[in-house]
Amino acid sequence: MIHAENLTKYYRDFCAVDQISFDIRPGEVLGLLGPNGAGKTTTLRMLTGFLKPTDGTVKIKNISIDENPLEIKKLIGYLPESAPLYHEMLVYDYLNFVADIRQINSGKKETRIRELANLCGLNKVMHKPIAVLSKGYKQRVGLAHAILGDPEILILDEPTSGLDPNQIVEIREIIRRIGREKTVILSTHILSEAEATCDRIMIIHQGRIVADGDAADLRRAADEKHRIRVGLTGATFDTIKKSFEKVEGVETIDLINENDMQVTLDLVSSGKMDIRGELYRRIKATDWILYEFSQQVESLETIFRELTKEN
Amino acid sequence: MRRFFQICKKEFTSYFVSPIAYIVMAIFLLVTGWFFFTTFFLFDQASLRNFFSLLPLIFSFVIPAVTMRLFAEEINIGSYETLMTLPLSPLDVILGKFFAAVFFVVVLLIPTLAYAVCIAFIGDLDWGPVIGGYAGAVLLGAAFSAVGLLASALTRNQIIAFIVAMAICFALTLIDKMLVFLPLAALDFFQYLGVGVHFENISKGIIDSRDILYFVSLCFIGLYSTRLVLQEKN
Hints:
The complex is a heterodimer.
Chain A: E1 2-11, E2 14-24, E3 29-33, H1 40-48, E4 55-60, E5 63-64, H2 69-75, E6 76-79, H3 91-101, H4 106-119, H5 135-147, E7 153-157, H6 165-179, E8 183-188, H7 191-197, E9 200-205, E10 208-213, H8 215-222, E11 226-233, H9 237-245, E12 250-258, E13 263-269, H10 276-285, E14 289-296, H11 300-307
Helix pairs in contact in A: 3-4, 8-11
Chain B: H1 2-17, H2 20-43, H3 49-67, H4 69-77, H5 79-84, H6 90-109, H7 113-122, H8 127-154, H9 158-174, H10 187-193, H11 195-203, H12 209-233
């Protein structure tokens, strides 16, 4: 559906996006993830044709953006960051205006606008000027504007930024509903959001792709290390450490918390070796009491932080 | 073509949603009315020549006020991005906004027809120069609108857009009144460059293709430069 090759964008000397290439299949919901200033917005702007890449090409359905920008703009519905819309227009007038530009014939126009008002929950604000709407409603108008022409590709730049938790859930629900039929690309810096809404996550850092795949892929790729948390009473940290150090495969032992009641520590083991059996045997041989014994799942946050560390 | 018309319609109506349109119209009519009628009875002539001779000067600050928001506001609030990613060509956008401004100028001129009607009642008005004058006024308004559109595309600040456009329009208006300071060899060239001669010809009722060409090429230069400025932005 979308094919980007060696996309590069320089703003004067600053390299915002550095030779990234990717393919997006039809029907995919892709999350573009990265810290602020990673090049997410620049990448999306190049996909929509708003920015011209310094180097590289974008092809959508085998049409190059340089050759036929108008044809490509018809295929894409785009919601820019923070939904900049015409302040003075009424919501209804604005959607009407977009429908006219998208050349929806006047018979279908009215039903289409009503349909979107229902989908995006705009019924109450249709006759208010956009300027007086709250951030959440503006974002919904922006979303309605993007979906209006029934485009095959939806590009959403931080669709949930600045919204309250209820609104975030609603917007995600809408995106998921649309994502069943359409190709969606959205950018965000919230990991749980990418995990909740996207089939595929691409992490961008300093203009380069540092990870690409579904959430499970990312977890696997990030690090093969296991982290096991153990909570015990009946011994000091030093005693426990001495005992556990002898277990084969243990790399580091970190103290998480020690008080009168309980010692909590994390053991990191390398590779695929499972050290849990040996640990348990050692604990059983003593009169320590075991309160906690769990394998920690490497959270996406950790992966994200690891991949996007400033270097 | 339909898309260009949609932009034009939207821009034109948004003039009347905000108070800008009414303020500009009120000031325009007040200023032209005052200058025209204070001298009208002194000259004791049934013509609109005085009114038309004032127009380039008045348009120099009225039209930049009309055009200043066209691009600057969009760039400032970011709706420029939304607009440019809709299925529109840059030409649709530029021409749409340009013609919206030109139509607004036409609307601005309509109430001044009352002057002509008033004069026709009290004296023997020659309608030829009046029609020529209005045709010239529309051409002049279009040329200044193109200049204003260019200034608006150059910046995100409407005040700067206004001042830049006003400076250019004033320069075009005053250049042939400053000819004394210029070398003799360049005199013809600078006289041709100024708005004055061309506008006077048309407002006398003389429709000369050279004058029309002058205004049309001014529009073309303004709009084409706008296109280049927008292209530079991406």
